[in-house]
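Quick start: what a row looks like.
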Amino acid sequence: MEEDVKAIPIVVSGYNRRQSLARVLQSLNQAIYRRADIPLYVSLDDGGADGTLEVARAFQWRHGPKSILPHSRPLGMREHAFKCMELPSEFEQLIFIEDDSYAGPEFYEFAVQVAHCVNVDEEVFAASLYSFDICEFDRLRFAPLQTGEDAYLSKSASTWGILVDKRKWQGFRDWYETNGQVETGALYVPDQVNFWPKTSWKKHLNRYLSAKGLSFIYPVNSHLTHFADRGTHYASSSANFQVPFVHRRAEGSSRSARLNTNNMARYDEFWELIPDQGLIDAIGLEFEFDIRRLKRTTQLRSPYVITSRHIEKPLKSFGRDLFPLEANVLQGFQGTDLNLTSSDAIPNVTHPADAQEVRLYMKDLGTRREILLTADRLLRKLRLKN
C-alpha cells in the first residue's frame, strides 16, 4: 500500500449493549491489517449508558488511534447512523459497523480491494462486508450465481457492516432531505421494505437505490456475520442472520486485483437475478425473474416474466433441480416449476410462499425432523400466550 494513501477509518456504532460492543471490538482487533495507522471511532448513543462507555474506554486498539464519541442524548438508530457517517470528515471513505455484528479476519482487506470500485463506479453506491444466505423479505435460502468474481451486485441495501464513500453518501442525504418523510409507497421495492419501522434507515436507503438505479457490492463469501442481538429492532436475539465468514485465504493468494463489475451477477430490489443480454437472447424474449413471488404486476418492468407461480399455459417451463433456481433457466433444465409468461398474466398481488415454493429453496429435513420443528414452534407460541 502506498504511503500517501490514507487508511480507511472504522466507525463502530453502539447503544446500551456492552457485551455486543466488547465482542465486535475484539473481532476488529483480531483482523488482518497491512498498516498501523487505522483510525477507530466508537460512537455511543445516549452517552454510552449501560457500561458501554467503560467498555470503549478500556478497549486497547492495536492498529492506530482510537476516538470515543458519546452522544449526550438518545439519537435513535436512524439519526445515530447518519452521525456516524459524518464523523471522520477528513476521509473520503469509511467502514461503518453495528455493534451486534462480528468482523472476520479478512474484512479490512476486502474493503481495501473494493474501495476503488466504490469510488469510481457510478453504478455502485457502497459495499457490504456481509453476504446474505437468505433473502430478507421471505427468509428463504439465497446464494449468488457464481461468475468467477469475488463479489456480486444488488439493488437491495446492507447496513450491518459497509464501506461508504462520502461523496455518494452525501447524494443520499440530499435525496433524504426531500424524500425522507415518506415512509411507504415506493413502487419498485418489496412491500416488506415499505412497512419496516420508522426507526429503520435501511428502508430509505433501499428506496434511494431503486430511485437512482444504484447497487451495493456484496462479497460472494461473507466477511462479517450478524448476531441480531436484542435491541431496537429485535425483541429477542436471533440466529437468522448468522453466516459463515472468511477465516483465511489460501496461502499465496492476495486481494490486490481490482474487481470488475462487468462480470458480476446482478440482483434487483427483490433479490431476483437480473438477466444479462446473453440470457435474454437465449430465451428469445425480454424478461425478468419473479421466482420469490414478491412482485406485483405494477412492479414488473419487462414484458415477460419467469415465475414460480402456477401458470395455465406458460410459453416455456423449467425445472427446479439446480440451485440457485435461476441456474435451471441458464442451463435449460426443462420441468414444470418455473414458468415463462406475459407480465400482464401475473396478478397485482404478492403471493406468500406455500409449501411447494418453500421446498424449491429448502433441503429435505426428513419427516421426523419436520414434525419436531412444527411441534417446537407450536409449543413456543403456547408458552408466549401463557
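That is the whole record. DSSP finds eleven helices and 15 strands in the chain. The first strand starts at residue 10 and ends at 14.
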